[in-house]
C-alpha cells in the first residue's frame, strides 16, 4: 500500500492523526454541489417568492456556519481556525449550484470544511423549498481543488 490509512492505528482502530509537529501553512479547498429542483421552484427562486424567504441568503449563512462547525460533526476532523469561508449560490435552469471555498493558516487542510459547507448549504436550500417541491434533491457534492500542505495543490481533472 502506497499510503497507509492515517486514521487507523496498528490494531486497526480509529484515531485522530497527531499534527502537533506540523508547521501551520496557508491552505484552501473548494467544493461544489447541486440542488436539483423543479422548473416551478427555479421560477420561485428567480422571482424571490419562495414562501420561507431568501433561500440563497439562508443557505449562504448555513454553509459558512457549517465550515466552522465541521469538527463537531466529523469525529476525526481537527479543530482548526477557519480564516475564510465563501459560499456562492447560483440559480440555474435545473436548480441551485453551490460552491464553497474555505481558507486557513493551520496544520491541516480544509477539504472537509469545504465539503461540509456545500452539504449544509444544500440542505438549507432543500429545507427552504421542500414545502413547494418534495422532489428537490442534492447531488454531485465533490472536492474541486485544494492547495497548501505537504501534498501541495490538487485539482479535480473533470471540473
From TrEMBL:
Catalytic activity: (8S)-3',8-cyclo-7,8-dihydroguanosine 5'-triphosphate = cyclic pyranopterin phosphate + diphosphate
Protein residues bound to substrate: 76-78, 112-113
Domain of life per record: Bacteria
Cross-referenced SUPFAM superfamilies: Molybdenum cofactor biosynthesis protein C, MoaC
CDD domains: MoaC_PE
Pathway: Cofactor biosynthesis; molybdopterin biosynthesis
MF (Gene Ontology): cyclic pyranopterin monophosphate synthase activity
Gene Ontology biological process terms in this record: Mo-molybdopterin cofactor biosynthetic process
InterPro entries found in the cross-reference section: MoaC, MoaC_bact/euk, MoaC_sf, MoCo_biosynth_MoaA/MoaC, Mopterin_CF_biosynth-C_dom
One Pfam entry name: MoaC
Positions of the Molybdopterin cofactor biosynthesis C (MoaC) domain: 16-149
UniProt-annotated catalytic positions: 127
Described function: Catalyzes the conversion of (8S)-3',8-cyclo-7,8-dihydroguanosine 5'-triphosphate to cyclic pyranopterin monophosphate (cPMP).
Family named by the database record: Belongs to the MoaC family.
Subunit and interaction comment: Homohexamer; trimer of dimers.
The protein's name: Cyclic pyranopterin monophosphate synthase
Record organism: Janibacter indicus
Amino acid at each position: 500500500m502506497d499510503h497507509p490509512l492515517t486514521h487507523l492505528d496498528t490494531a486497526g482502530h480509529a484515531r485522530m492523526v497527531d499534527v502537533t509537529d506540523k508547521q501551520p501553512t496557508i491552505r484552501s479547498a473548494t467544493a461544489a454541489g447541486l440542488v436539483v429542483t423543479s422548473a416551478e421552484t427555479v421560477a420561485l427562486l428567480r422571482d424571490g417568492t419562495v414562501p420561507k424567504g431568501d433561500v440563497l441568503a439562508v443557505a449562504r449563512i448555513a454553509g459558512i456556519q457549517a465550515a466552522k462547525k465541521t469538527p463537531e460533526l466529523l469525529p476525526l476532523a481537527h479543530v482548526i481556525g477557519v480564516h475564510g469561508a465563501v459560499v456562492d449560490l447560483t440559480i440555474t435552469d435545473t436548480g441551485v449550484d453551490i460552491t464553497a471555498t474555505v481558507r486557513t493558516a493551520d496544520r491541516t487542510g480544509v477539504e472537509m470544511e469545504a465539503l461540509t459547507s456545500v452539504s449544509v448549504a444544500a440542505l438549507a436550500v432543500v429545507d427552504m423549498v421542500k414545502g413547494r417541491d418534495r422532489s428537490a434533491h442534492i447531488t454531485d457534492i465533490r472536492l474541486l481543488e485544494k492547495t497548501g500542505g505537504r501534498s501541495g495543490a490538487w485539482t479535480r481533472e473533470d471540473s
